[in-house]
Amino acid sequence: MQDFSASFGLAFQLVLAADPDLLEIIALSLKVSLSAVAIACLIGLPVGTAIAMGRFRGRTATIILLNALMGLPPVVVGLLIYLLLSNAGPLGWMRLLYTPGAMIIAQAVLITPIVAALSREVVEQLHCEYAEQFRSLSVPRSSAAAALLWDARYSLLTVALAGFGRAVAEVGAVIIVGGNIDHLTRVMTTAIALETSKGDLALALALGIVLITLALSVNAAVMALRLTATRYAYA
Amino acid sequence: MFKTRLARIAPIVLLGCAMLSVPALAEEKSILVQSTTSTANSGLYDDILPIFTAKTGIKVHVVAVGTGQAIKNAQNGDGDVLLVHAKASEEKFVAEGWGVERFDVMYNDFIIVGPAADPAGIAGSKDAAAAMKTIADSKSLFASRGDNSGTHKKEVSLWKDAGVDTAASSGDWYRETGSGMGATLNTAVGMGAYAMTDRGTWISFKNKGDYRIVVEGDDKLFNQYGVILVNPARHPNVKQAEGQAFIDWITGDEGQAAIAAYMLDGQQLFFPNARR
Predict the structure, then answer these.
(1) DSSP per residue, A26-37
(2) Of A54, A159, A190, A214, which is most buried with the most CB atoms under 10 A?
(3) With contacts defined as CB-CB under 8 Å, which chain B residues touch A179?
(4) pLDDT tens-digit profile of B7-51?
(5) Considering the entire predicted model, what is its pTM?
(6) Hey, what CATH topology would domain B109-221 get?
(7) Do A229 and B18 touch (CB under 8 A)?
(8) Looking at domain B30-108+224-272, what is its CATH homologous superfamily?
(9) What residues does each domain of chain A span?
(10) C-alpha distances in angstroms, B92 versus A172, B100, B243?
């Protein structure tokens, strides 16, 4: 088990040396996954809220479907997006295949159901609490939705983090639609897959340690933001 | 009041930052090469492509997948140039009109690697088919790519020469990993199986364990790489001028010299043999 100690040492060296290639890969990983989270929130939050507050036929079926979609296999999503964006596919004219844009789309497709399903859960619970008040005060639905989203903001932040975690850790989709092209579409996970296939397990694990640290930093940053916001709010 | 507003704004700002980071895709002179894991993993491209880019200003983006997938991607028009190693499939690709013309680029050879214990007792053999027959007869583990790649196609043809029906033993002693060369070597080393690999990947592979080359030097193990421009008549998106410039370069004196000069651990990995 020489690899473990070697990897930790290597991970430190990589970070301390601030290797420009590594920084480029880290930056792209963050760019792709944060953009995917933003898109997923823009779509997923309204959808989740609408289902949470709505009463319509097939609601239960919709919820079941949404919950099931949380388990979308990345490699299948990657394949579907590849077929759509391929020059032989219907969206080939967009020239997006093998670009970060394609990777953002793939990850957004993967995590939008997560954001929608989890935010539905969060908002619905809150809605149960507030429903009577909304009714007695005749609050318009749009204002009610805004109030619910606002009051649930911290839970929803955790929802967004769950989406980010899935996006940044995912390899199956981005390696198909991004192609793992050096200096163009190589992100942390595809770099790890590449080093593993080269048999350089120590370097692969070192990159893995960097990726986990990265995810930890993003979560810590959000937590710090939340604490600061709460402190200001009640100061 | 100000403080409350800050608390309100903070999450929105965070979202905004994420939005702003959507990449602006800059236009630059570049081509996309659909190629194989064996060439990319060996580090050859990292070594020779900067020379081409410095000379022409054309960036070369390489997608490294199995030969089967590379050909499929090129057929879909997702690439300008195809550089792979399965001559029959390449010629079919050109014959069907997907590619313009095929040129030889370089060669290396395939080898069979196995554990030091050598359970089938084939070390030192120069007859690939006979060695593989021995592996089959002794039911020693063999890890196959099983992914329709150039290496896999070569391996299948060798089993045919050896008169072994691997399909009957799949999952038994014949293990198809369905993954790239490096991943298959990792698997083989992990379970003590023999495996066939190209020499380039083997030399640059870092997780060898006690594995060594057991079979090499058979003429049948010759591994030829070819380069093809994807047909612009089929796919108007193909960057014909840039792609042709790359093919002219890699099959020309300068590219061929760069290939010959690429060394890893003091060994030459690829041997240029473009005929012009």
Answers:
(1) HHHHHHHHHHHH
(2) A159
(3) 61, 63
(4) 555 445 444 444 444 444 445 799 999 999 888 888 899 999 999
(5) 0.85
(6) D-Maltodextrin-Binding Protein; domain 2 (3.40.190)
(7) no
(8) Periplasmic binding protein-like II (3.40.190.10)
(9) 2-234
(10) 30, 12, 20
